[in-house]
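hey m, so remember when u said the tokens were messed up on ur end? i reran from scratch. heres the input so u can diff it against urs
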Amino acid sequence: MDLIQASAVSKRFGGIAALSRAEFHAAAGEVHALIGENGAGKSTFIQILAGALRPDEGRILLRGEPFVAANPSSAQRAGVSAVFQELSLVPDLTVEQNIWFRREPLNVFGTVRPRKLRADTLALFERYRIPVTRPDIEVRRLTLAERQVVEIAKALARDPAVLILDEATSSLAPRETEWLLDLARSLADSGMLVIYISHRLGEVRHLARRITVFRNGMTVAAHDMAAVSDDEIIAEMLGRRLDRLYPERKPTATDRVALKIRDLTVGHRLQGVDLDIMEGEVVGVGGLQGHGQREMFQALFGVGRSRGSIELWGRPLHARSPRQALADGIALVPEDRRAQGLLLAKPVRENLTLSVIPRFSRAGFLDSRREKALVAEMIAFLRIKAKTPDQLAGTLSGGNQQKVIFGKMLLTEAKVLLLFDPTRGVDVGTKGEIFQLMRDLAAKGYAILFYSSDLPELVHVADRVAVLRNGRIAAVLEDGAISEANILKAAMVEGGVH
């Protein structure tokens, strides 16, 4: 018998159906993939399972008994724990305090037993081989990948019967990704049901035994993984065949240097980087996570202190803040779109125009007609799926949130674009749109520097790939030398590529 049986589950938000009679059946002891485009209903469904939402209609059985969680705590008590793509950690608390939040071991006086807290944390780390080094470090000091690992540890600490992983590898480095995939398999082997949501079909195929596909809030297919091809899965997700994920890579670079970087140094994390990005060129940045990529992009966008020289279109760039970088013509799509790129409680319209308000102002008054026209044009150009320009950004799917950030960046009219993992957690259809947009912008003379944690993206989209190792450029790959193997060799082995 299936551990979870969901039948005819529906959920509406106002006049919008997020789920429409969705079906889902999954057994204990398996990794079951749930996939679909952003906005297909996956997040709504798993929030219902995890107790964050209640269904309007339908029936869910857990272990054969009716199950509707009133809140996340009741879902966790019933054995359902979720690791959502957007993290729930408290930045000012330590790793161990976050893992056992509101479940800390207490003494008879109601105060926390620190030794027991530490012992429980270390036992959890050992049991699941969790790659976190210091349980006493504040979460605010961790990288996004490290915070993701802590979120997974927090879910595992509840010993769930059902573990939901929502894009859990999207911010992980290869080492942590391998750890999580191995962990998911071992958990399933021990009898747990792992519901795995990912836009990385290679991971899904490698890991899952069965797969359920959502589209437009409905279940459109369920398969044994071995019985269906990637092309068939993508067609079911999109409702059409995807002719090409990666656009044709036509040379568009000129001989004009758009961004000239010399001896760029950030503490000990980035050491003496030299790189030129030409007008009309897409340059990828590869390497194992944590080898200076983040520091490089932040320094170019005026975040933090750095040394070295940067020239933008032949002029010295002295950006000491993102505001100044934007004014000089350099824009960034940040690593964490929700925390760094959007005002979630503000409308799409305000998110798009916040950085360029002076363009719509005359004598201190906002030209709302001009603003409205440009917002409508950008929404149509990027095919942002928003009910109206006044829909709150936080209510959009992940892919559409990313499109809003791209729109905000394009409205600045900056011609040098820094894209940090721009397709992280984005569905395959939106990925194709982003890749095509990048090539189209390059053809118009934009210069693009982009980092990706997904090696095939670098191989298929970039004109050149600069690989960082230990804060330095280990290799710059061009033409036929751009391959996953060569990127990994340069990232891991001294003198790995010749």
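this time it looks ok to me. The CA atoms of residues 335 and 420 lie 5 Å apart. if urs says something different then somethings off w ur setup not the seq
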